[in-house]
Amino acid sequence: MRIICCRFGNKFNDWHVKNLKHMIDNYSGLKYDSFEVIETDLYGNWYNKFQMYDKFRDGENLYFDLDMVIYDKLPNLIRKDFTLLYDYWREGVESHTPLNSSIVSWTGDVSHIWKKFKSNDEYYLKKYYKGSDEFYYKEIKYKTYDDICYSIKDHTYDTKPLDNYSVCTLGQMHHLMEKGWSGWYSNYFLPNQMQPEE
After folding, report:
1. Is 197 a member of any domain?
2. Stretch 190-196: mean pLDDT, rounded?
3. Span 59-80, pLDDT tens digits
4. SS3 143
5. Is residue 196 in a domain?
6. Range of the domain at 107
């Protein structure tokens, strides 16, 4: 199995990559063959992760965003078909898509995703400017996980993680990883907990 993440721009740095690997190695129970980092910054945003569909065309693949909190043994997340999260925590809220690509899995070759996007990337970047999840929703055949991940948005001030989960996404609240912020989630981060100052 291959673990994949993507780092680009100034939003995330080497600490975030090491922190994700730390949580996977210490809490997730996952056994993997390689830990891969997409670092080529073609687009300056989340569309950079699309490069993984071109680069990794075989085997079992499991992608995580860098602003995740993994705090217990994960369920089996490997999927044969292209699979991502259903954004259930935004139900009832007007949104451009019900999908979330903080966790993605596939087995084998899904390079058709990259090829479709790359065939007219400027057009898709403008059309789906709100995020790559809308591209998946409108352009790609996909499956979704069962309810396996939650958003910290409604649980920022909880004193402990939700018991029936083992992973959550920080989403647009990745500042919780910065110095000066702490909570139950920071107990699972690397020693020194917070990323170094720029």
Report:
1. no
2. 63
3. 999 999 999 999 999 999 999 9
4. strand
5. no
6. 2-188
**Pairing relation of β-strands 167-169 and 143-144?**
unpaired
Position 174 in a domain: yes
Q: Alpha-carbon distance 45 to 116, whole Å?
A: 18
pTM of model > 0.90: yes
DSSP string of 14-50?
A: HHHHHHHHHHIIIII----SEEEEE---SSSSGGGGG
Lookup: tokens for 23: 């949580």
pLDDT tens by residue, 84-114: 999 876 665 666 688 999 999 999 999 999 9
pLDDT at 124: 98
What would the DSSP string read from start to end of 92-127?
A: TS--S-SEEEEEEEEES--HHHHHHHHTTHHHHHHH
Question: Which of 85, 100, 95 shows the shortest CA–CA distance to 46?
Answer: 100
Domain contains 59: yes
Contact between 143 and 105 (Cβ < 8 Å): no
Q: Could you give the number of structural domains in the chain?
A: 1
